[in-house]
Specification:
The protein is mainly alpha-helical. The protein has one domain: Up-down Bundle (Rhopdopsin 7-helix transmembrane proteins), CATH 1.20.1070.10. The protein has ten helices and three strands, in the order βααβαααβααααα. It has a three-stranded mixed beta sheet with strand order 2-1-3. Helix 1 crosses helix 10. The longest helix has about 35 residues.
Length: about 300
């Protein structure tokens, strides 16, 4: 079906219209973005440079950091530009492109976390089979599946939106082209919009959540059956950072999709979106570096080599 839209651009509403508040928010989100870029880049460099981290868990962490870096870069630079610009507009095709990458990267991150949960499941519940089950080819296949599902989700949303009609208004009550506020502007019936969101959430969001949940159900069951308290502590420590990241992501998503309609508001929806699309990519490398002894040790080795090389 040919796209019959008459809207050529959208207006992204800022978090505030007060110039002084805009300047403050610009500095805050610029700092967050710099921390996000630095933290995730550092994690990737450490994993790539240190041979001690060349194993499945850090293979997935490398990809998680890369996804977080891309995810933040899809929305934050545009937001920063809008804080300093009088016209915070985005073209129709630019908005659709941003929406594609938001969905694509969000789904890829969710399934990457599922792959990491499976890695921890095999390591704790079936350690004798770990080397055979988590070979390099298996890890690449799992991560390729995460990226493929992410691309598929992005394409599904893109194809659906391109079939819709947008005749105005063109103000998106959000700082980015996320699907829910964008779909609200279409001339399609609300039921159709809700069905698209529901189908996507069930197929992509719920499936990744269930895969992670099943893995952790078996992990926790295995840990509780361990007779040694020291063994329980060591087993839990191997998945503590990942469990923190999973909880941070899914608790936010759970709140977003289960909150009563009476609690829904533009400000609240934006705050939730800031949490999972901007703050989470910044917090993930911090969580993994602070709670992971191997990462901290590898980081220390890399910094030590740099100091030696430059004579610091």
């Amino acid at each position: 079906m040919e796209n019959q839209t008459t809207v050529t651009e959208f207006i992204l509403l800022r978090l505030s219209n007060d110039p002084q508040v805009q300047t403050f928010l610009f500095l805050v989100f610029l700092l967050i973005y710099l921390v996000t870029v630095t933290g995730n880049t550092l994690i990737m460099l450490v994993i790539r440079a240190d041979s001690h981290l060349h194993n499945p868990m850090y293979f997935f962490l490398f990809h998680l950091s890369f996804v977080d870096l891309c995810y933040s870069s899809v929305t934050v630079p545009k937001m920063l530009t809008d804080f300093l610009s009088e016209q915070n507009t985005i073209s129709f095709h630019g908005c659709i492109t941003q929406m594609f990458f938001i969905v694509f990267l969000a789904v890829t991150e969710a399934f990457t976390l599922s792959a990491m949960a499976y890695d921890r499941y095999v390591a704790i519940c079936d350690p004798l089979r770990y080397a055979a089950a988590m070979k390099d080819d298996s890890c690449v296949l799992l991560e390729a599946g995460a990226w493929t599902l992410g691309i598929l989700a992005g394409l599904v949303y893109t194809v659906v939106v391109l079939q819709l009609q947008f005749r105005g208004p063109n103000q998106i009550h959000h700082f980015s082209c996320e699907p829910p506020p964008l779909l609200q502007l279409s001339c399609t019936s609300p039921l159709k919009e809700q069905m698209v969101l529901l189908a996507s959430a069930v197929i992509f969001g719920l499936s990744s959540f269930l895969l992670t949940l099943i893995s952790y159900f078996h992990i926790i069951s295995t840990i509780l059956r361990m007779r040694s308290a020291e063994g329980q502590r060591k087993a839990f420590n191997t998945c503590r950072s990942h469990l923190t990241v999973v909880a941070l992501l899914y608790l936010t998503a759970f709140f977003q999709y289960t909150k009563p309609s009476s609690a829904s508001s533009v400000v609240l929806d934006e705050m939730v979106s800031i949490q999972y699309s901007i703050l989470t990519p910044m917090l993930n490398p911090i969580i993994y570096s602070l709670k992971n002894k191997e990462v901290k040790t590898a980081l220390g080795r890399m910094l030590g080599k740099l100091r030696f090389r430059f004579g610091v």
